TrEMBL record:
Belongs to the dpy-19 family. One of its GO terms (cellular component) is nuclear inner membrane. The chain crosses the membrane at residues 41-66, 179-197, 217-235, 242-260, 266-284, 296-324, 344-362, 416-437, 522-540. The gene is Dpy19l3. It comes from Machaerirhynchus nigripectus. Keywords: Glycosyltransferase, Membrane, Transferase, Transmembrane, Transmembrane helix. It is found in: Membrane. This is D19L3 mannosyltransferase.
Length: 716
């Protein structure tokens, strides 16, 4: 198994707000600029400095994660096969297509090999560009081939440096979003510093480089920044059109680079829907955002050869339903409180029913079942009945798809991020409830006018969107740990915006009867600066220690296996095994696979379940017949799976297979009453005894401490 071991080394006023404010032309020291020319120059200087700081922080973050990656693996010193093995599971599969395009005789031949691929799934020809989101690998490989950099930069470095460079884009986008929300680049500085110091919970790019989310999240952050700017009032028509174009491009790139884009944008669409229903966002701009989401996804659908999973996505069904329902209910935002609440309930029910009907209709027409495992997983996860479904249980038993661990909050609190986030979230949530009630009731009583104005100023449209966005993605992160990176990065933006917001501190001080303009300005700048100083003094030494810690990649068993495969098997050989290992086999050796980790295909899921019978209690004849049906030449057995201890009883892979097959699980503990003992011992254990009933089908050809490779007999 792969391990990391200690390396052995030989000897003022910032960006102008669209909304009018009491504190115009105010320097960070609280002085009022009386000279309009001086105020304009100060704005230009502030924007210039803020922009330089944003770019600098983005580049520093990129260098930081690249250095961590190098220090952790000694990437520059290890062999090519070790570098490729370091791209674990699906990361290796995605990178293999980049390598395939680089090694192709021509770009046209490389593209043809992806469109008519017969090495990723044996006895099947599949279209990789239709099935997987690998256009980024295609683009990078073409760029590498046409640029005159081959003599200076290896393909693997061009690839990983691009991903680390996208981290710079990510941090800059977070910085700009916070700046736009608060009106001061000090907020962006704080957001970026929080992102870096909470790296464990905000990104995992340094050890999962080719993962789809590492490509997609920077574009998602750019899209959120563009939406934040779009939701400002008093934009000029040209500004609005350019911003809509930026939103579209970012949405398209986000959708193109991650297969789970539709679920993330569905949550975003729900945020827009909620705010539109509560009259907290301009309806025209929300409509444009719905259309952009649909058009961006449809364009990706075309590029992915009309991928049915995209056409059958809930996002398209939901957005179309909202637009239809809005056409039917034209007077949704008129009337008193009870009248509007009634209309709102009917509107929500209408949208929900239309969404389910349209989605069901599309899936029926397309015979779409690619995403059914996700809904089975969600149904079981949220307690709507236990399941014996192998695919659903495979997700349920993975820690990444479990609830967010509580120690996450202690880590976030150590940087003061969670405390600041909680304070801002509570304040703006209360303000949002009051504003929503006022919008629905339409009450403008004179005695409440001044009080309501306080909350209205605090909750501008961009702040309202940021609030609902962070709440919905927070719920997603709490329910599924793997999705925390969508929440924690925005948490940095939201908390820093609140600490640097004039409106937030103005409201707080007025509630405490301590408000003055000068005091608001003082707190607005002093609290973030004190927080930055605290972060710097507490975490800078730790970051320096982290950067000085040197380790190296160490996985001799896997290296030995890959070298043996390349040296002792034909190029056309077909390998069966765990989907995680086989991704590495394809990348390192180029051999044909029976299954792989990209799980968004029903036939592949069925195939994987069948291949995994090598770890179940099945007869050698049954296993041989299954493997033969997929054209298998060699099967790789892993002791780490056969004798797994990482998961508890009931979640080990062999347990999931036993339950799915109706067999009693191994070990002490309860079993469901209808499970029965198997007639056969566990295949992966029994085959090692070299009994005649096994040797007539399988011959061991390779063995080390971790892996056992068996060659299948022909024509039995």
């Amino acid at each position: 198994m792969t391990t990391i071991r200690q390396r052995r080394v030989g000897k003022g006023t910032e960006a102008a707000e669209d909304q009018p404010s009491e504190e115009t032309n105010v320097k960070p020291d609280g002085k009022i600029l009386s000279d309009p020319t001086g105020g304009k120059l100060w704005n230009i200087l502030s924007i210039t400095v803020g922009g330089i700081v944003a770019i600098s922080l983005g580049l520093l973050t990129s260098v930081y994660v690249a250095t961590l990656h190098e220090n952790d693996l000694w990437f520059s010193n290890i062999k090519e096969v070790e570098r490729e093995i370091s791209f674990r599971t699906e990361c290796g599969l995605y990178y293999s297509y980049y390598k395939q395009m680089i090694q192709a005789a021509s770009i046209q031949q490389g593209l043809h090999g992806l469109v008519y691929d017969n090495k990723t799934e044996s006895v099947r020809t599949i279209n990789i560009l239709e099935r997987m989101n690998v256009y980024q690998e295609v683009f990078l490989s073409i760029l590498y081939r046409i640029l005159p950099i081959q003599q200076y930069l290896e393909p693997v470095y061009f690839y990983i440096y691009t991903l680390f460079g996208l981290q710079a884009v990510y941090v800059i986008a977070l910085y700009v979003t916070s700046w736009l929300l608060s009106g001061t680049w000090l907020s962006g500085l704080l957001a970026a510093c929080w992102y870096i110091t909470n790296r464990v919970d905000t990104t995992r790019v340094e050890f999962t480089i080719p993962l789809r989310e590492n490509w997609a999240l920077p574009f998602f952050a750019v899209q959120i920044a563009a939406i934040t700017y779009l939701l400002r009032t008093h934009l000029q028509p040209v500004q609005e059109r350019l911003t809509l174009m930026a939103v579209f491009i970012a949405t398209f790139l986000f959708s193109l680079t991650w297969q789970f884009n539709q679920f993330m944008m569905l949550i975003q669409a729900l945020a827009l829907f909620i705010l539109d229903c509560l009259d907290m966002l301009p309806t025209a701009k929300v409509t444009w955002l719905y259309i952009i989401q649909i058009s961006g996804l449809l364009l990706v659908c075309v590029l992915q050869f009309f991928n049915a999973m995209i056409l059958g996505s809930l996002l398209i069904s939901f957005n179309v339903s909202v637009l239809i329902a809005r056409t039917i209910q034209k007077n949704l935002k008129k009337g008193g409180l009870l009248n509007r609440l009634g209309k709102l309930i009917l509107h929500v029910l209408l949208v929900l029913c239309l969404t389910l009907l349209i989605n069901k209709f599309i899936k029926k027409i397309l015979n779409l079942e690619s995403d059914e495992h996700i809904f089975k997983f969600l149904k079981a996860k949220f307690g709507f009945g236990a399941t014996r479904d192998f695919d659903a249980n495979l997700y349920l038993c993975e820690e990444a798809f479990g609830l967010l661990p509580l120690n996450t909050f202690s880590r976030l609190s150590s940087t003061l991020l969670f405390y600041a986030y909680g304070f801002v979230l509570f304040l703006l949530a209360v303000a949002a409830v009051i504003v929503a009630f006022r919008n629905l009731s339409g009450s403008i009583q004179v005695q409440l006018k001044e009080k309501m104005e306080e909350y209205t100023v605090t909750l501008k449209p961009d702040a309202a969107y940021s609030l609902v966005h962070t709440v919905l993605f927070g719920c997603l992160a709490l329910s599924t740990m793997r999705m925390k990176y969508l929440w924690t990065s925005h948490m940095c933006v939201f908390a820093s915006f609140g600490l640097c917001s004039t409106e937030v501190w103005k409201l707080t001080l007025k509630c405490l009867h301590l408000y003055t303009s000068q005091r608001t300005q003082l707190i607005k700048y002093s609290i973030p600066i004190i927080t930055l100083l605290y972060i710097s003094f507490k975490f800078w030494p730790g970051i320096m220690d982290e950067l000085s810690e040197l380790r190296e990649f160490y996985d001799p068993d896997t290296v030995e296996l890959m070298n043996w495969i390349k040296s002792n098997t034909p190029n056309t050989a077909v390998f069966a095994g765990s989907m995680q290992l086989l991704a590495g086999v394809k990348l390192c050796t180029g051999r044909t696979l029976t299954n792989h980790p990209h799980y968004e295909d029903k036939n592949l899921r069925e195939r994987t379940k069948q291949i995994y019978q090598i770890y179940a209690k099945r007869s050698p004849g049954d296993v041989y017949g299954i493997l033969q049906s997929f054209g298998t030449d060699y099967v790789i057995l892993e002791d780490s799976i056969c004798y797994e201890r990482r998961h508890s009883r009931g979640c080990r892979l062999r347990d999931l297979l036993d339950v799915a097959n109706g067999h009693i699980m191994d070990g002490l503990g309860e079993n469901e009453p209808d499970l029965k003992p198997s007639l056969y011992p566990r295949f992966c254990e029994e085959i090692k005894k070299n009994l005649p009933s096994y040797t007539i089908y399988f011959t061991r050809v390779f063995q080390n401490k971790t892996f056992h490779v068996y060659k299948l007999a022909k024509h039995k």
